[in-house]
Amino acid sequence: MVNVLIITPVFYPQISGITTRLKKLITLLEPHGYNFTIMTPLTTAQYKQIEYLSSFKYPSWFTGIENNEIMISKFYRYNQIYQEISSTVIKYQIDMIHVISPLLCGYIVNRVAQRHQIKCVHSYHTDVIQYLETNGANWAFKYFSRIMLYYLTGINSADQVAAPSINTLVAIYEQGISKNLHSLVIPEFLPLEPRPEFFHRQPDKNLVYVGRVAPEKSLERIITAMNQLPDYTLHIVGYGSSFSAMQLLAANQPNIIFYGAIAHSDISNYYLKGSIFIQTSETETRGLTTIEAMICGLVPIVYPAGGSLEIVSDRINGLYFKTKEELTAAIRSVPESWNTLRNGCRNYLNTKFSEHENLRFWTDFYRI
Predict the structure, then answer these.
(1) What is the DSSP string of 275-319?
(2) What are the structural domains of the chain?
(3) Of the residues 112, 216, 300, 361, which has the fewest C-beta atoms closer than 10 A?
(4) What would the pLDDT profile of 195-241 be if each residue is shown by its tens digit?
(5) Is 176 helix (H, G, I), strand (E, B) or coil?
(6) pTM above 0.85, yes or no
């Protein structure tokens, strides 16, 4: 049995690519001799909503602390963080630590691993510089963030680093991370199990967005475009720091529906509310919700940047847009190209995913 401690800025009941990937990873590896402990910033209310999976354990670390404080932690808490992680390693007889980067406590986690002589690996899921830019950080903070990324995340002193796309690895290198670091691209996996009702969808006038409602997702692009699409309905599924702002922006648009946070076990039912999936973000490191949407029978329309470029090929299994005009034109063009695009989605899903490859990758990544 290999005991793995995962330290992550997000986990259930939050919906994000990270949480979906972690759930798939853990359910894949548990039958093969891996036992998982999770450390994550959850409030007391969130603890009551967690979807438990067999051997999960949830230390109380960061309970009640807002998520951004794990990513941009107050320096005076570092000694406390160090002690609590170290105690968890001892309590659960941890053999290795997996840090979901970029956490500024990553450097501390590496120190804990070194103290206990165990392996420490990082997987990197957010382009920090783009994230800060879309969240309105000033130039001084963005400049300092490069220093923080380089030193405090501890990526350069990790045993291995993995990222969900080539674009994300390139971003890491551009931000000063050593190219000598043993880095890998995480293989793709099916985040949802296909169901019969997914396979015979037809185009309609319902659009779906699933994911965090946050500044870096640029949802104002589709919300403002809905003024030109009065005969369409937009379903926004998810919650985040921009939720109230986006509701206010859409206040006079009755064709936009907000659902807030939902349980991931119900996510397929929300994808089925539409036939077109909208991804407006420029900062997707992978774009897991885009893959989920294709599994559920939707055609994706994406902003051509980041991980989206590695999933969607324009006019083959989806459509690209950059301006509001291109977005509305793409939406209205879907019915005429529906069969071509859906066949492209099916071809992509049939050729890109292998559970055997995922098992091989993660057992190698977690090898001690």
Answers:
(1) SEEEE--S--SS-HHHHHHHHTTPEEEE-SSGGGGGT--BTTTBE
(2) 2-189+354-365 (3.40.50.2000), 196-352 (3.40.50.2000)
(3) 361
(4) 777 878 999 999 999 998 988 899 999 999 999 999 999 999 999 88
(5) coil
(6) no
